[in-house]
Write the structure tokens for this entry.
Amino acid sequence: VQLQASGGGLVQPGGSLRLSCQASGSIFSIKIRSAAWYRQAPGKERELVARVGWGGDATYSDSVKGRFAISRDNAKDTVYLQMNSLKPEDTAVYYCFWGDSWGQGTQVTVSS
């Protein structure tokens, strides 16, 4: 399975970004499994941001609850992370994790 993450960039505080993670390859092995977004800021450990199950049930870390929304399009084999009201402390490399596979990471920088 290959996971292609995209959508990162530079945004001002209070702005929004939408990350995408598209799966390809032997996707039958992961289609019904939960998917998640993690992030890793410089000098910090990788942390779980949000997770979504096959049916769309989602959980979030306390730091992003109410600002981020994770979703999935099972027909497109894609998981999304809508990030609103971004803060400088959201700056990190964001990784998708689906089944047992990691995406390559996409940089999100929140700065004025």
